[in-house]
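Narrative of accomplishments. A recurring question from our advisory board has been how the design workflow behaves on a single, concrete structure rather than in aggregate. To address it, we present the structure tokens for one chain from the evaluation set, followed by the sequence designed for it. No filtering or post-editing was applied between the two.
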């Protein structure tokens, strides 16, 4: 189940971009620019048990994860966000496991980006 929740879905990315290859490239670049630092902030909030920051970062991650089709991770972020908004921090290791899975997904996105042909003039 863990693998399914972290699986990158290029078909969903292409659907989101309406089949526009240039937009796919832009979405990949945006994802790779913003998700790693966002995930780092979430990891830091989890370690510090700072629920307001957990909720904020989990919420922000959700839309990024949707673009690449990671519905399982998106649902886990939603659950974390909802709990954190109620002041509930996840048990030790639970939240960092989510961050680890986002790292795996990010590696998949990076590999996909690297495999795409170069475009432009």
């Amino acid at each position: 189940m863990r693998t399914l929740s972290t699986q990158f879905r290029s078909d969903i990315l292409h659907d989101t971009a309406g089949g526009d290859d240039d937009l796919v490239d832009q979405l990949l670049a945006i994802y790779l620019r913003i998700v790693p630092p966002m995930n780092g902030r979430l990891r830091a909030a989890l370690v510090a048990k700072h629920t307001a920051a957990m909720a904020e970062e989990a919420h922000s991650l959700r839309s990024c994860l949707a673009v690449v089709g990671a519905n399982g991770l998106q649902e886990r972020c939603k659950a974390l966000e909802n709990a954190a908004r109620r002041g509930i921090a996840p048990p030790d290791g639970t939240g960092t496991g989510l961050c680890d899975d986002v790292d795996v997904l990010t590696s998949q996105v990076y590999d996909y980006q690297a495999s795409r042909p170069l475009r432009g003039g």
